[in-house]
Amino acid sequence: MEMEAQENTVQQKLSGNNMIEMIKVSRSYPPDIQALKDISFSVETGEMFFLIGRSGAGKTTLLKLICNMEMPTNGLIEVAGYNINSLKGKDLALLRQRIGVAYQDFKLLNDRTVAENIAIAMEVSYKKQRAIKQRVRDLLDQLQLTSKHDLLTGELSRGEQQRVTLARSVANSPRLILVDEPTGNLDSTTTEKVMDLLTRSNKAGATIVIATHDASIYENSNKRIMELRDGMIHSLVRGNTI
């Protein structure tokens, strides 16, 4: 009963107006590197939001702060209404189950198969095996990876690994999906399939934040785009206004 109550509370918070709220957030590293400085913005629940900027602008650091991989030096970060840096134990675990992350460095288990890597995201939520297998097959089909089902991820090309990472991030139908450079190793056709998958997840209700330097995936959209320069917000606009 206690676990069910916690899950209900998390679910209610996930349906609030803002999925992400950052107030005067900074992140520095020793000895004197200022990765982010006084970042304040919000992302609405159900929004697809683009984070752009050159390498070193602070995009990856910002994503790490949102998913609690790193702690801010200063400022407040709320995810689904929770101060994510004060969550502990079961509350933090429950919230993390509802966040999918596609890392730029993949973080795949190279001694496991493609199917096993994707299934892990659902197994931690105790999904039924039949449902897991079907979801894995569907995702591999959408990303043109069906023939890679039983291959070890260490045997894949970087572009294939990138797609497996994305499939894993959306597999459990999380309410928040953070994607770091999803198209960096892909051709235009595969990029379109990746964006189709993310758009489908967004239409199903997921809030999606995409960090990218690939202008082709946002320049003709009407989504909000925030540009970072030297760790600070340079602009925050709608896509078809830039």
What spatial order of strands do you see in the largest sheet? 6-7-8-3-9-10
Could you spell the SSE succession in H and E letters?
HEEEHEEHEHHHEHEEE
Output the CATH class name of the largest domain. Alpha Beta
CATH fold group of the largest domain: Rossmann fold
Task: Please identify which CATH superfamily of the largest domain we are dealing with.
Answer: P-loop containing nucleotide triphosphate hydrolases
Q: Counting H and I runs of at least 4 residues, what is the number of helices?
A: 7
Q: How many strands appear in the DSSP assignment?
A: 10
- How large is the share of residues in beta strands? 25-35%
The biggest sheet amounts to:
6 strands, mixed
Tell me the count of domains.
2
| Distance separating the two termini | 50 Å
**Which CATH architecture of the largest domain is right?**
3-Layer(aba) Sandwich
Mean pLDDT: 91
The low-confidence runs, each spanning 5 or more residues with pLDDT under 50, are none
Helix/strand-derived category reads alpha/beta
Q: Name the shape in a single word.
A: globular
What Rg, in angstroms, do the CA atoms define? Answer: 18 Å
Percent range of helical residues: 25-40%
